[in-house]
């Protein structure tokens, strides 16, 4: 009877030990799985943060590029407006002259029109092939009020 009890106790202990080992293995596997899951979750979150950072950097670069483009466009518009204003102002200071003798040069015209005001530029229009005067040109003055005096000189030879 004793032997039987002892064998029964030993079997019971073995089963209990086996269950305990199984439980420990199961807990260990569960811990490992949770650890892997946690590590994977951290890697995923890190990748998401990295993607978000890259997206923000791209957006920032695009925003800067757009701002630079807008600034360049505004500068171009300003330069165009200034050139347009300069041309408009230049037109107000310029007189068109025609029926000029073919031998008239810019020095003669400058001297003649300096009676009306200080001459800034004289442009005689010439034939590209022959280089001869076409008989007309433009006189630009420094002061727009000189244009009135130049127009009053019409008909002079």
Structural commentary:
- By secondary structure, the chain is an alpha+beta fold.
- The protein is built from three helices and three strands; from the N terminus they run H-E-H-E-E-H.
- The protein has helices at residues 2-92, 106-113, 145-152, and strands at residues 94-98, 119-126, 133-141.
- Strands 1-3-2 form a three-stranded antiparallel beta sheet.
- The model has no long low-confidence stretch (mean pLDDT 91).
Question: Any chance you could write out the topology, listing elements then pairs?
Answer:
Blueprint: H1 2-92, E1 94-98, H2 106-113, E2 119-126, E3 133-141, H3 145-152
Antiparallel strand pairs: 1-3, 2-3
Apparent shape: rod-shaped
Could you give the order of the helices and strands? HEHEEH
* Biggest sheet details: 3 strands, antiparallel
Mean pLDDT: 91
Structural class, from secondary structure content? Answer: alpha+beta
As a percent range, the share of helical residues equals 55-70%
Total number of strands? 3
How big is the Rg?
A: 49 Å
Number of helices: 3
- Which percent band covers the strand fraction? 5-15%
Give the CA-CA distance, first to last residue.
Answer: 155 Å
In short:
By secondary structure, the protein is an alpha+beta fold. The chain has three helices and three strands; from the N terminus they run αβαββα.
